[in-house]
Amino acid sequence: MDKKLKIIAICGSPRRGNTYNILEILKQSDSEIDLKILMLSELNLMDCFGCYSCINTGEENCPLKDDRDMIIEEMKAADGTIFASPTYARTVSALMKKFVERTSYISHRPIFFGKHAMALTTCAGFGGDLTCKYLNENFTQSGFNFVTSLELMVSTKSETETDYNHKKAINEYSKLITVIKAQEEFKPSLGQLVYFNIFKSISELNKVKGWADYEFYKDKKDFYFDINIPFMKNKIAKWIAGREIKKMKANK
Ligand SMILES: Cc1cc2nc3c(=O)[nH]c(=O)nc-3n(C[C@H](O)[C@H](O)[C@H](O)COP(=O)(O)O)c2cc1C
C-alpha cells in the first residue's frame, strides 16, 4: 500500500474560527491524505527580540526555547505545507507574523527546495490578496514552490457563500495535491538563482559577524546544491545579482 501523503497546515488564527473551519473542510475532503493542523495559538512560540543570533551564528543559538523547531521539523517531514492566516488589518495575523519572524533565518539559508505550498486566507472583503502575497513571498524565499493562493471571503456566512467557499477551497487544495503527486524534477527559477548569488556575495562581506551564512555558502558554487543549470540562465542570474550587489555597495 502506498504511503499516505502528509500535509501540514500552519494556522495563524488566534481561534478555531473561519480559517480553521476551512482547514477542517480540507482535512475531511480526502481521507487518503494525512492533513495535520497546527494552531500557532495553541503552541509555545515566543516573540523574536531581534538579537540576530539565528541569522549570524546559527538557528541553534536562538535563546528562545519553544516550539519553533518542532514546527520546522513537521514542515520538513511533510509533502506539502498550507500557510493559513486570517486577514487582520490587511495582512497576516500577529501570530503568523511572529512565525515568519522566528523562521526568517531560513530565507538566508533556505531548506525547503522541492517542497510545495499554498497560501490560504479568510477575510471579510479587503486585503486578502495582500495576506496571500505576503505568505507567498516570505516562504518562497525559504525554498517553497507556491502552487496556489486561496483567498476566501466570509462576510455574509450565507449558505451560498459557505458552499462556494468549500468548493473553491477543495478545488485549490487539489491543485496542491496534484503537483505533489506529479513529482516533477526541481529546476531553479531565475529568481532563485539571483537570490542565491546575492546571498552568497553578501555572506562573503560579513565573514566574521555573520559566519553562519558564510559557512553555509562558502563551498557552494552556482546553487544551494549540485544541480544542472542552463549556461545562459546561470550567466543572466549572476549578472542581475552583480548589478543588485553594486547598488547595495553604493549605498554604503
Ligand atoms: C482584528 C481584525 C482585523 C480584521 N481586518 C480585516 C481586514 O483588514 N480585511 C478584511 O477583509 N477582513 C478583516 N477582518 C475580518 C477577518 O479577516 C475575517 O473575519 C476572518 O475570516 C477571521 O478569521 P478567523 O475566524 O480565523 O480569525 C478582521 C478581523 C479582525 C478580528
UniProtKB/TrEMBL annotation:
Q: Does the keyword Flavoprotein apply?
A: yes
Record has Flavoprotein as a keyword: yes
Q: Which Gene3D superfamilies match?
A: 3.40.50.360
Q: Which UniProt keywords apply?
A: Flavoprotein, FMN
Q: Name one GO molecular function term.
A: oxidoreductase activity
- What Pfam families does its record include? FMN_red (PF03358)
Q: Which domain of life is it from?
A: Bacteria
Q: Domain NADPH-dependent FMN reductase-like spans what residues?
A: 6-156
The name under which this protein is listed is Flavodoxin family protein
